[in-house]
Amino acid sequence: xxxxHPKLLIIQPSHYRSKTDRTIFKTRRRQMVPLALPxxxxxxxxxxxxxxxDEQLEDINFDASVDVVALTAWxxxxxxAYDIATEFRRRGVTxxxxxPHVFFxxxxxxxxxxxxxxxxxxxxxxxxxxxxxxxxxxxxxxATPLKExxxxxPPRYDLLDLKKFGPFRTFAVQSSRGCPFxxxxxxxxxxxGGRYRWRPVNQMVDEIxxxxxxxxxxxxxxxxxxxxxxxxxxxxEGLVPLKIRWSTLWSSxxxxxxxxxxxAQKSGVMHVNIGIESIDAETLADMKKGWNKxxxxxxxxxxxxxxxxxxxxxxxxxxxxxxPDVYDNTLRFLEEHKVPAAYFNILTPTKGxxxxxxxxxxxxxxxxxxxxxxxxxxxxxxxxxxxxxxxxQRIQRMYKSFYGMRSIFHRLPFPKSRSDMxxxxxxxxxxxxxxxxxxxxxxxxx
Length: 446
Hints:
Oligomer: single chain
Strand content: 15-25%
Distance between the termini: 43 Å
Largest sheet: 7 strands, parallel
Structural class: alpha/beta
Helix content: 25-40%
Radius of gyration: 22 Å
Strand order of the largest sheet: 2-8-11-12-13-14-15
């Protein structure tokens, strides 16, 4: 194949509803405008004709006139991505694939595609497309991580139908990659390039200013917005004149930094997700997350509440030495402190982590290749004090208790501000998930 004006279709696959239900998950509208699709389009040479497709919102026409199909996938999307690749290749269309899933499953993905890209797209994307157009694709392309994140192109939002993302849409943006911390359960630092890096503030602010006329809500989708505090504060200073509202993830220690929080409030922060993981100091030590100070959690929450910053907390359950009462104690703790929102997760050893190697060696992983393939809170390990099914039931019970109406009315204030309203909307969404007929805590549905 040698193409002069090639046509490229970039697809973000959906996922199947469960291992036994191969119905494709669909939604009529998303609130979050994705970054991967328009950013890959921005990296694509101008001689290519590019079409973007989000399968959750649109059906795929497998008979479309395209030369190359590119798939970007997390492990959750991989079973569906492989089926899509198979259908296009059966029609003689070249298929390439990348994304977080491919970083850990390159050889597996290569069985279904003509080529796969491992790692960050910038160093290899253009080469893969050139090789595809010239008919000389290799099976695997491995990227050397970028040293810096300078001069990244602005995403091609002009190729998306933004009406499908609703009037209150939130744009996903990224101001940094990687994380300065090393938690034993987290694999993000590998596929995000390893070393923590950040974009120049002026370039990030310019990008947000260009997007602002399309929507004034932004989500900084990165492992740790405050990974380098001085740089994060410089960025927030740049956000102040834009008068936007934004959300992100940052570490618990920043909730004790009043100067940081004051500037975050001034720059328009609305919601922050924080990985506190546990209320037990010994469990946090097992996670290698000792910087979370359980004795100062109350102070953290009060600092956020005083500045009208909505927040949610991530928890992980299933560590060997955790107290059997930790589930009930956690619920009491959350109600006592009137925490706006929380996510309860089952310990999941993902590929690349020390936790995965340790549990695999001990024979504690039920099916290593099944991890993260299906939606919902699934127990992939043999817990020390219960069965996998019992662990799943514990988590489901926590969701139903925490997002029960009694708990919601006790924890949340009357919605007087936009941050209060954000907490109420989040709780109603999580309540629908917790009491859904599937009962498997599939965050993607709601």
